[in-house]
Amino acid sequence: MATILGKAVWQSVTMSDRLTSLDASFLYLEESTTSMHVGSVMVFQPPREGFDYDQLVRIIEGRIGAIPRFRQKVLDVPGRIANPVWVDDEAFDLGYHVRRAGLPRPGSDRQLQDFVARVQPRKLDRTRPLWEVYLVEGLHDGRFAIVTKTHHALIDGVNALDIAHVIVDAVKGEDEDDLVAPWEPSRPPSSVELVTGAVIDAVRRPTQVVDLVRGGLNDALNVGMRAVESAGQVLSTVARTAARPAPDSPLNAEIGSARRWVMIATDLEDYRLVRKRLARGAYAEDVTINDVVLATIAGGFRAWLLGRGEAVSPHTSVRAMVPVSIYGDDPAGMYANQVMACVVNLPVGEPGASMRLHQIAFAMRQQMEGGQAVGATSLANLAGFAPPTLHALGARLGSAMSRRLYNVMITNVPGPQTPLYAGDAEMLSTYPVTPLAKGQALSIGITSYNGGVYFGLNADRDAMPDVDVLGQSIVESLAELTSGRES
Q1: What structural domains and CATH numbers belong to the chain?
Q2: Distance between CA atoms of 219 and 111, rounded to whole angstroms?
Q3: Residue among 479, 480, 445 nearest 41 (CA)
Q4: Rounded Cα gap, residues 323 and 368, in angstroms
Q5: CB 124 within 8 Å of CB 96
Q6: CB within 8 A of 429, min separation 6: which ones?
């Protein structure tokens, strides 16, 4: 009987899908001021017959069946002796996750920005699957928006993507294949099974056994010291890419939980024209669209700082952490270890727009070719400790260091250059909402889509009351680059 019971427990616990150390770290990273979920704001033009909440629910209901993670929640292991596991939500309620909101007249873009700034900082409910969708009606010109929130712990590129990718499709109209398949949730493991599974996983990973089963205060302190030492080694690797601490900047401040959010729409063709006109000389082919985007942001920062009355000298810079895809033309590997994080000083003290571009292009090329960029594995290890009781230590250490390593995070993700649809409604534009790290008053997300380049500026409400001025400065910086005039 004991053998049969042991086998049953083994089968049950091994069915549980344990979070990776990196995914778990995103859960432990959250504080009252830092919500670790990513969002998107997609603006649509409805078809003549309209688009309603019930249609959005049907689209999501028909497609999440292929991605079980969207109907699973996180379950902690007693005592946190191992990473949490994903389990089916037996009380899954799609109506809780898909919500409806309306803007008052006139339904301006500013009102949409205010709505996003209110709903995005709110933490996702840990007792349910970690995503939400809002259908926002009442935008002027008959448009509507879909606002999404997906926790970083859920997005691993293999078992689940951002919920936004589930909603839109390259094919117009609802897919007849998106039929609601019958779903029966699996029974979640008991506390005994969770603990047994943790021990089994520890046996499979001998290096973790001591950390998992040792008890007593002294042993816990020893484990903690090893985690700090490990964190220090990884952080030293990252710090070497930065050479020296990030410059002082109003972009680094103590942040609260309230946000301001600004969206900016620009034309991709403008960046292509700038690249074609300014990317000349021995390294012309090495100037990328991403370099032009960064130069545009650098010019925006320059004007914003000057407008604030900040001291701007020829050597003034803003240090940006810029994740760069290295999978080239092969998107099949985009979710693997195919991202490099470059730390680049944006030369905001340089008055010449074209010179800013060439300096940024050179710095980016130097990091990519010189092996100074930090691989995804190193970044993952920054908070990837086990057991999970030490994740908070690693995450807080990494967060505290980040404000000294860089001033702002800038993510630029290329999207499709053909229209996408939610049912029969065409997506006109899409704006990312990237979270703020501790001590970071601003994050900038950028997405290119169907001939446009769309910025989402997420900022702390008190530290960045003039983030809309920065947005306008970025628009003016692009105009400066395209016109060829120098400030």
Answers
A1: 241-417+435-483 (3.30.559.30)
A2: 54
A3: 445
A4: 11
A5: no
A6: 42, 43, 265, 449, 452, 454
pLDDT band at residue 24 using 50, 70 and 90 as cut-offs: confident
Dihedral sign of CA atoms 72, 77, 80, 83 in order:
negative
pTM metric for this prediction: 0.83
Long-range contact set of residues 159-162: C-beta below 8 Å, sequence gap at least 24: 159/17, 159/67, 159/68, 159/69, 160/67, 160/69, 160/70, 161/67, 162/38, 162/40
Higher pLDDT, 277 or 212: 277
**DSSP class of residue 34?**
B
The reported pLDDT for the residue numbered 3 is 35
Closest listed residue to residue 85, CA positions, set 100, 69, 70, 73: 73
CA distance 404 to 444: 18
pLDDT on residue 339: 59
Please state, in angstroms and rounded to a whole number, the distance separating the CA atoms of residues 379 and 231: 11
In degrees and rounded to multiples of 5, residue 42 shows phi and psi of -110, 125
Burial class (CB in 10 A: 0-12, 13-18, 19+), 371: exposed
Q: What is the DSSP letter of 294?
A: H
| Residue 412, φ and ψ in degrees, nearest 5 | -125, 110
Is there a contact between 369 and 283 (Cβ–Cβ < 8 Å)? no
Quote the CA–CA distance of 453 and 289 in Å, as a whole number.
11
CB within 8 A of 218, min separation 6: which ones? none
Per-residue pLDDT tens over the stretch 326-360: 544 333 333 333 556 788 999 999 999 999 999 99
Other beta carbons less than 10 A from residue 225's beta carbon? 10
- Dump pLDDT digits (tens) for 161-200: 778 888 999 888 866 555 666 788 888 787 777 777 766 6
The rounded distance, in Å, linking the Cα atoms of 477 and 469 is 12
The amino acid present at 467, given as its one-letter code, is V
Number of residues that this document lists for the chain: 487
Q: What is the DSSP letter of 466?
A: T
Residue type, 163: I
Task: Give the count of beta carbons closer than 10 Å to the beta carbon of residue 128.
Answer: 18
Residue 135's identity, in one-letter code, is L
Decide the pairing of beta strands 318-325 and 408-414. Answer: parallel
What is the separation, in whole angstroms, between the first and last Cα of the chain?
82
Range 5-9, long-range pairs (CB < 8 A, 24+ positions): 9/192, 9/193, 9/196
